[in-house]
Design goal:
mainly alpha, disordered N terminus
Length: 208
């Protein structure tokens, strides 16, 4: 085999790897209406992080709050996991752990007594899984899937850090409250949109 043929093989190999890394859409096998419902639920999850609404739900409707905070994430994560099974780095075990922890979060949110006992450990566990999973996706992939990984990390960091900052530095400044809470709500909205984009069908350019 001459050098020209070897160069062609190397180029084709590099092209194949690049194509495998660039992922803009994953085929989850889930109906679009379910993905859209999960997206809406994630938007509601973001809205319920606003402190007055959150406190009202925690006091009057903890089970409904648990459903809002769990359904959208679990459906989206399961769909992405299914879609990634055909990729060269599916991270299936990581996804199952994330889903299991979100389901555990449903229990802690819906039952305040349990939340007082294991709520913090579950929250910390989520952070310890979201960060390596999100970083791995961002490192190994490009395109919309990479953006999902990046925003997964930002989502868990901001969701975990902002409440601590609010607790430590909370004062009577309504501007500070708005800035902190808008950051938390905003990152949920963006993460939900990134998940939806990678799960909903290809645009016309990508189809070509």
């Amino acid at each position: 085999m001459d050098n020209h043929s070897l160069n062609d093989i190397d180029k084709n190999h590099d092209k194949t790897i690049a194509e495998q890394r660039c992922v803009n859409h994953v085929k989850s096998g889930q109906p679009r209406w379910l993905i859209e419902m999960a997206f809406v639920c994630l938007i509601l999850q973001g809205i319920t992080t606003w402190t007055p609404i959150l406190h009202w739900f925690m006091e009057h409707a903890p089970i409904l709050l648990a459903i809002i905070q769990t359904f959208g994430a679990v459906v989206m994560f399961y769909a992405v996991m299914q879609g990634m099974k055909s990729l060269y780095k599916p991270f299936t075990y990581f996804w199952w752990i994330v889903i299991a922890l979100n389901l555990a979060g449903f229990v802690t949110t819906s039952i305040p007594v349990i939340n007082e006992i294991i709520g913090i450990p579950i929250a910390i566990s989520l952070m310890l899984v979201y960060i390596p999973l999100g970083c791995s996706i961002a490192i190994f992939y490009r395109g919309r899937l990479q953006q999902v990984g990046i925003w997964m990390v930002l989502y868990i960091l901001i969701s975990a850090i902002i409440p601590v900052v609010w607790f430590l530095f909370a004062n009577d400044s309504s501007l500070m409250d708005i800035l902190l809470e808008s950051s938390t709500i905003g990152v949920v909205f963006i993460f939900a949109w990134m998940l939806r984009r990678v799960l909903i069908g290809l645009d016309e350019t990508e189809k070509e």
